[in-house]
Specification:
Helix 5 links the parallel strand 3 and strand 4. The protein has 14 helices and 15 strands. The two termini are 41 Å apart. By secondary structure, the protein is of the alpha/beta class.
Length: 392
């Protein structure tokens, strides 16, 4: 491999949310963090070089994109990787996907109207709905035979009964790791079309798909679905750029785009962080080989976890992920309450994971683990987990 992902880089003392805030959040300072979804790998060298060049210039005034190079980098990436051909007018740049989801909620619904999500799911979805004064409706994912699926009957019944106006789709799904098939997305989309439901599709994890799976852009399925969809993308998960606050929101419907832009204007936000713009363009222009090698490394990390659990911790079940670098583990066979499980993870295993209940009621008995780290850290985490479970 051209890039090494085995080097452990010290992140403590760098104002890292992942590493430096355990005590402030009521956890022991010595926990090993495998929680929040950023990676313990440096961004691609080409991205670092582009940022260094901007730093050498030394002026960080108001900035935007002055030519077609930024859009062209996006166009090439999405057409080659996903077969989705973008148009320049679709693009609205925003500081982040959660920011964009909140703006879309305000743009496409009124206070008191219903927004549907599919739990267990990325917890800012529910927070964003409730913080903006909308009603939260949950279409609970069905877990059967070690795999999650959508209850389409419940999906449509909830939409009709609750008069749902907006559906927030997580694709690929965080935390359960599903890469939705085109037919699953089409089925949900047809229901939304029948009942006048708009869709916000969070596709920030689209680049993390394991062999045998393929990410389908929801809006690319048909012109009809594109017409009701706000697609949220970003380079931040793919290239470990979350702190630079950059996302690319793609909306083909002019009226939806106008309403979305208006909500962003109401926040007073205009030009983006110049370093985010620089990093995004460099990543999409030059980061493909780095990402391809990273995917191989993540696959080997996943195989390590899979083998370790089967061999050493058979009562802990891996929910086999089809995508993302977030692993969803089922601890229910241990017979512990969520409080007891969290105590075991934090105080005995000395790990900082994401408790399943954060993602909704369906997360009871589960924990989310971030495997985007050097193998030595992952091995240490699994050893600590084994040691804690041996005390039961």
């Amino acid at each position: 491999m051209s890039y090494s992902f085995d080097t452990v880089i010290e992140r403590r003392g760098t104002d890292s949310i992942k590493y430096d805030f355990a005590a402030k959040r009521g956890l022991p300072e010595d926990v090993l963090p495998l929680w929040v979804a950023d990676m313990d790998f440096p961004s691609p060298p080409e991205v670092l070089d582009a940022l260094a060049e901007k730093c050498r210039h030394g002026i960080f005034g108001y900035s935007d994109v002055a030519d077609d190079s930024y859009f062209n980098a996006l166009f090439k990436w999405y057409s080659e990787r996903f077969g989705w051909r973008l148009s320049p007018e679709w693009l609205v740049k925003a500081p982040g996907v959660v920011f964009a989801i909140c703006a879309a909620i305000r743009a496409l619904t009124e206070e008191g109207e219903a927004v549907l999500i599919q739990q267990p799911v990325y917890y800012p979805f529910s927070e964003s709905v409730l913080a903006n004064g909308r009603r939260l409706v949950v279409n609970e994912l069905v877990y059967s035979g070690g795999k999650y699926s959508v209850d389409l009957e419940d999906f449509e019944e909830k939409i009709k009964r609750e008069k749902v106006k907006l559906f927030i789709l997580c694709s690929p799904h965080n935390p359960v790791g599903r890469v939705w098939r085109a037919e699953e997305l089409s089925a949900m989309g047809e229901i939304c079309l029948r009942h006048g439901v708009k869709v916000v599709s969070d596709e920030i994890h689209a680049d993390f798909v394991y062999p045998g799976n393929r990410h389908q852009v929801f809006a690319a399925i048909s012109p009809e679905l594109a017409d009701i969809t706000v697609t949220c993308t970003a380079p931040t998960k793919t290239f470990n750029l979350a702190g630079l606050q950059i996302s690319n929101i793609l909306i083909s419907n002019p009226e939806l785009r106008r309403r979305f832009r208006l909500e962003i204007s109401k926040t007073g936000y205009s030009q983006l962080n110049i370093m985010g713009l620089v990093a995004c363009r460099a990543a999409y222009e030059h980061g493909a080989r780095w990402l391809d090698e990273l995917l191989v490394y993540l696959g080997s990390n996943l195989e390590f976890v899979r083998s370790f659990l089967a061999r050493e911790l058979p009562r802990v079940r891996l929910v086999e992920p089809e995508g993302t670098y977030l692993v969803w583990l089922d601890f229910r066979a241990l017979g512990l309450t969520d409080r007891e499980l969290n105590d075991l993870i934090v105080n005995k295993a000395k790990l900082w994971l994401d408790a399943g209940t954060m993602f909704g009621a369906g997360g009871t008995g589960f924990q989310r683990v971030n495997i985007a780290c050097p193998r030595s850290l992952l091995e240490r985490a699994m050893r600590q987990l084994k040691g804690a479970l041996s005390s039961l």
